[in-house]
Design brief:
The structure is a homodimer. Chain A is of the alpha+beta class. Chain A is built from 15 helices and 27 strands. In chain A, the strands form five sheets. An eight-stranded mixed sheet of chain A has the order 6-5-13-14-15-11-17-20, with helices on both faces. In chain A, strands 1, 2, 8, 9, 10, 18 and 19 form a seven-stranded mixed sheet that branches. A seven-stranded mixed sheet of chain A has the order 22-21-25-24-23-26-27, covered by helices on one side. Chain A is globular, with a radius of gyration of 26 Å. The relative contact order of chain A is 0.12. At the A-B interface, strand 4 of A face strand 4 of B.
């Protein structure tokens, strides 16, 4: 007899994408399990780049300090090109690695994928949850019954799980009935294949080798991101933990030996061989391994594919995310970031539906938002990989790539690669109609960082830290200038609106509001606000310099909010701006929430 | 039979002062034990103020993030005085709580003494150490034999320990033979009394009551430090954890009932009575307890004593620290800070002697430095308490205190109360002879914070974080302008000097050096330094703006160092400037270390 169980959400695959989902759902109080077919986590190598927006996201789960404690920050990018003297390479320019001024953490961060996984596991463990492994699905069936599919409380998906190494089919097997399933089981996703979802796109003819080791070198940029172009191929250098670097080496397809399947024959390649190729390209700089006894920490070789899944969900009951939905080159360290971004987008939506707060239609916005992002990612990747892998312009390669072309692309795509520039298109949860009330808070983009001052105690507060990823919508109320004529009326009107919204959707629970006053620090002004706008003293901020003049204020101006009228900003649980409203028109706020929330 | 054991250092008393010593010594690899007669730590109340320098010190033990996570930051100070309308009190001014621009953490921080103790205990526990409790000394004998006293490896102190509640004398007793003993057992120190060390000074006629509770009030400054002066007495308000405040209420001696011993009769006083007195002084603001069922978290009543121990050590074998050596009013939250400062000063000295690195004469600097500080503290306390407890100037009190007098004192003593201004007088370890080479780094004061840029990876680095409290001396090498004529000679001369010093005192171990270049970020310049000046790439900084222009550079100018000649700065293990030397004169450095270090 198979053991049978019930769960709200089952997650298949415990890489960064699956763990992001598991941690977020558990944090939001959802009954969730996560399984992985591997017996242990990743020990070395694999994805290692964390982009600025990912750092903001992790911080919103209160995991920032863990990440910063172990990660290697990469602040500068150095570009090397063929020396003008014609012998070897030389430095062309060195610039900030993150080109986006509004990034809260303006740098990349490298760390071992296993360390990222451990941070999620530790967080989950503190909530009494762990990865169940090794445990793999053997079948998945989604109900075809409309009445089941339309009932969010129904267990619409049946998954058989089995220990991969168990000999007896029956004994070790388990049948899990799940309301929702998330498949984050990697580029060769079992879930995707089982559901018959296609990967659209193609392989490329770009082959790369990767080696992780501690270098002995007179090359000055081993602690910066480096892009090296030579006449014989391109390289990337990425600093890592414990004085290591990762070097990506472009490989000449014609020099590679293929096996019968047309894949690279790994047995004919070695880490030493990759180092030899890198050495040649580093000339005139010397490059070697610091300690031969230490050897290489990790190495691999791969061909770049550029594909996107045709669907990201089946009936909004099974969702795919991470590498299961998109594969691309590692040139801009997008893999782990895009994967975590998928499930950061998905988790709060499932949580709201599971908790009966939102309509199931909310779940459609996952594919809408993240598949578009994945397609943009592949488009970017094609452009960038072509530039990166192309030969440099020279007398022989008259149609080669100039450094300026690559550098311009690096700058142009900075918003995209940092993750900061992501802008979700209009939908039920992304309403652009009152953008003019807060021109510096583009609807569909994440709330940019700014330091305000907490009114009661003059503590400098980063607004992003007031928007934790707790699966709940937040309201930022910018009250505007309190000396204006209609200030009191505006405030009272909004307080009434908020009261109505809370009654309708939250059974009157205290609001997730941050009230941001204009003007000077004066704690006495807190008490003049209607109580619903100050559920706790810590939720009232002011747009002023802090007590020590280390933060300049200017938040209204930065966010494009006119102090003579103020603004209401609805922030989605993932910290993206969902809607903007005038204080005086309660209907805007009500209309927005009516679009997808359920009255309680 | 008594059990007999041997230990390098025995600490008696596990309050913040003893725990600071235990944690520091264990961290420095010293064989140390700490005992306390109480069965458990402090559960509520007691000392709760952490001043800016204490925060820097805790950060130097890598405990900053623990403290900040749980502490309540106090950024503003508000002063209330009798209303000019003659009815109740009104706000006179609100200013930054920390008036010292160079503070790295420009605020006070309140937290429950038990929480401070737990942070130390957790740190010790990670090093495999815990407080032994309840365990109390019953006798202490210091050897009178000169040959023993002069031999740092001799076990010169014999202490009998016993569980306070054990019935059988013999069974539970233990004889500990210690090389050194630290007595941090509080104001009524058993150790101090057993050694016959006198407390010099006197009681005052100032009596104070203290209550901790969650207020219900329209007083706007419950999250700031508040000094209130009324015609009937003074009050202080201190914000605490969990929305609590602590209110200090000055009590009229004549209205207090005394017991037969002349002490205040606590049975005739209550927390409710203290709240009633506070309420009267808060007029016209309302003040009450938010939830009567919650009640008071803690309360006490005490008389201020202002005393200093006549000696801080006996033969430099037993040391006294913390409240055992000084008692004073809590008006400027000095108690816990001064106590931790004592043992932060002492621990590295003992560690150096125990490890055979320094001569025993080093230990004499403890009393020299900390007794002077304690005397200064009492002097300050007398002045400040007189102002604070005095009646306000009025038509009746024509010799009363004006707000301006108190406020000026608050500003003037800011350096002292913050702990930042402490300056140790010249001694073997504090050599002022080359101050002109770094006028912004006063010898005897702690190294002020400044953000430099790490050359290899452009990471912004706070110099204080390069000076961890690991019981080792550090050298800051400011190389100066590398385009000057004698740059290469200067650098090589200093590299040779450093080589000699390391050979003599450290058996050639790699140096604790931070090399700070002038000029622009350019990682290629690291490789041009002699290897001894760059034991690891992370130890080379540059005085430049960081990659994101968030930190302005300007360190040479701030520290008063002329780039045309550079400077060598020796930093003591406790992060105080010990000596300054020109690069070209190796003798200065050698002479300094010869004064107290032992050749290996």
């Amino acid at each position: 007899m198979n053991q049978e169980s019930f769960v709200d959400v089952l997650i298949i695959g415990a890489g960064p994408s699956g763990l992001m989902a598991a941690n977020a759902l558990r944090h939001a109080g959802v009954n969730v399990r996560i399984v992985d077919k591997r017996a242990t986590g990743v020990a070395a190598g694999q994805a290692d780049g964390m982009m600025p927006r990912s750092l903001e996201i992790l911080q919103s789960y209160d995991l920032g300090k863990d990440i910063f404690e172990i990660g290697t920050q990469v602040h500068l990018a150095a570009f090397y090109n063929p020396s003008k003297q014609g012998d070897g390479i030389e430095l062309t320019r060195r610039v900030p690695n993150c080109t986006i001024a509004s990034a809260r953490y303006p740098f990349g961060l490298t760390l071992h994928q296993g360390d990222v996984e451990k941070i999620f596991e530790r967080s989950m463990s503190s909530m009494g949850m762990c990865i169940e492994r090794p445990l793999a699905p053997t079948s998945i069936v989604v109900s075809q019954d409309d009445s089941v599919l339309h009932d969010p409380s129904a267990y619409a998906v049946k998954v058989h799980l089995k220990q991969p190494d168990s000999e007896s089919e029956d004994e070790a097997a388990e049948v899990v009935n799940a309301r929702f399933v998330i498949g984050t089981d990697g580029a060769r996703s079992w879930t995707r294949k089982a559901l018959g979802v296609a990967l659209e796109g193609a392989q490329t003819d770009y082959y790369w080798g990767v080696i992780d080791f501690v270098p002995e070198t007179d090359f000055p940029d081993t602690r910066n991101y480096v892009a090296i172009h030579t006449h014989t191929g391109s390289l990337m250098v990425i600093p890592r933990e414990n004085d290591m670097v990762r070097i990506y080496v472009q490989l000449d397809k014609n020099a590679l030996e293929m096996d019968e399947m047309g894949n690279v024959d790994r047995t004919k390649m070695s880490a030493d061989r990759l180092l030899e190729i890198a050495k040649a390209s580093f000339h005139p700089f010397k490059l070697d391994m610091k300690d031969r006894n230490e050897g290489f920490k990790w190495w691999t070789i791969y061909r770049i594919g550029q594909r996107v899944a045709s669907n990201f969900s089946v009936h909004e009951r099974v969702f795919l995310g991470g590498d299961a939905t998109h594969t691309h080159s590692p040139k801009a360290a997008q893999g782990m970031n895009a994967s975590m971004g998928d499930t950061h987008n998905l988790a709060w939506k499932i949580a709201q539906v599971v908790h009966g707060q939102a309509d199931m239609s909310l779940l459609k916005t996952y594919e809408f938002e993240r598949r578009q992002f994945a397609q943009d990612l592949i488009l970017f990747d094609k452009t960038y990989a072509t530039l990166f892998c192309g030969k440099p312009l020279s007398e022989i390669n008259t149609d080669g790539i100039t450094h300026e072309e690559l550098y311009q692309a690096y700058q142009t795509f900075g918003g995209f690669t940092s993750g900061i520039g992501i802008c979700y298109a209009p939908s039920a949860i992304t309403c652009t109609s009152n953008q003019g009330f807060a021109t510096g808070l583009p609807v569909g983009q994440r709330v940019p960082p700014h330091v305000f001052v907490r009114m009661a105690d003059a503590l400098a507060v980063e607004i992003q830290d007031m928007l934790p990823a707790n699966a709940r919508f937040k309201i930022l109320l910018f009250t505007g200038d309190h000396t204006r004529d209609n200030y009191t009326d505006d405030i009272q009107h909004f307080a009434d609106t908020l009261g109505d919204v809370l009654t309708r959707y939250q059974k009157g629970r205290s609001p997730d509001i941050v009230t941001i006053l204009a003007g000077d620090k004066d704690p006495a002004r807190i008490l003049s606000l209607p109580p619903i706008l100050r559920p706790h003293w810590s939720r009232v901020l002011v747009d002023d310099v802090d007590a020590h003049r280390r933060h300049p204020g200017g938040g209204y101006e930065k966010y494009g909010i006119d102090p003579s009228r103020g603004a209401v900003v609805v922030v989605r649980p993932d910290a993206y701006v969902g809607a903007i409203a005038p204080l005086q028109e309660g209907g805007v706020l009500k209309g927005y929430f009516d679009g997808f929330l359920l009255a309680q």
